[in-house]
Write a structure and sequence with these properties.
The chain is an alpha/beta fold and 203 residues long. It has 7 helices and 9 strands, in the order βαβββαββαβαβααβα. The protein has one domain: Rossmann fold (3-Layer(aba) Sandwich), CATH 3.40.50. Strands 2-7-1-8-9 form a 5-stranded parallel β-sheet, sandwiched between helices. A 4-stranded mixed β-sheet has the order 4-3-6-5. Helix 5 packs across helix 6. Bound molecules: guanosine-5'-monophosphate. Guanosine-5'-monophosphate binds next to strand 5, strand 6 and helix 4.
Length: 203
């Protein structure tokens, strides 16, 4: 089932990028820069990390809660979700109803999700736009993954390999309108704002 969101100025914006590229920082800065932005808080089964705020960064739910919400119903193969995906053995998903409500209200809906999720959203909402945040270089990505002090060196190498695959997939999947290199944060945010304004003006 696809939904035509071309009516009105509501815009779904998919923001993706490998972990360590700075996509969360850019997505949050974009939220502050656009007065009518609404940031979609994902549900996840991963445990909260240090600094994660339940309800603000994620809604942390059990596997059972997630599975119940994801149970397909007639006309809704993803259940209550607009999209969901498995990332590093954990489940992540975007609830459909709040996204639709905010689009109907004409807002910029920011979906910070991975490429698998981006493809599902784009299939359901062909008018969704996408930006993909790239690290300035492989070395910079590795350095940022290490600086987070969240993972072992093994896990860092796995995330690095996954990042390479995700960047290659992003180039070919047709979801992303713009690839933003996060060399300087202010410049990268300005570019993201410009993409959004450009799309909205063009409608
Ligand atoms: P992290 O656990 O590091 O916060 O996120 C891991 C990955 O899951 C990131 O690539 C992030 O973009 C992705 N992610 C977060 N929320 C969602 C979601 O609702 N759906 C999908 N498909 N991916 C998500």
């Amino acid at each position: 089932m696809t939904t035509d969101w071309s009516e009105g100025k509501g815009l779904a914006l998919i923001v993706s990028g490998p972990s360590g590229a700075g996509k969360t920082t850019i997505a949050r800065a974009l939220e502050r820069a656009c007065p009518d932005a609404w940031f979609s808080v994902s549900l996840t089964t991963r445990p909260p990390g240090p600094g994660d705020r339940d309800g603000l960064d994620y809604r942390f739910v059990s596997e059972e809660q997630f599975a119940t919400l994801a149970t397909p119903t007639p006309g809704s193969p993803m259940g209550e979700f607009l999209e969901h995906a498995g990332v590093y053995g954990r489940r992540y998903g975007t609830l459909r109803a709040p996204v639709e409500d905010n689009l109907r209200a004409g807002r910029l809906v920011i979906l910070e999700i991975d490429v698998q999720g981006g493809k599902i959203v784009k299939a359901a909402m062909p008018h969704a736009a996408g930006v993909f945040v790239l690290p300035p270089s492989d070395d910079a990505l590795l350095a940022r993954l290490r600086a987070r002090r969240r993972d072992s060196e093994d896990a860092i190498q796995r995330r690095f390999a996954a990042a390479q695959r995700e960047m290659a997939e992003a180039r070919t999947c047709g979801v992303y309108d713009r690839f933003i290199v996060n060399d300087t944060l202010d410049r990268a945010v300005a570019e993201a704002v410009e993409v959004v304004q450009g799309i909205r003006r063009g409608r």
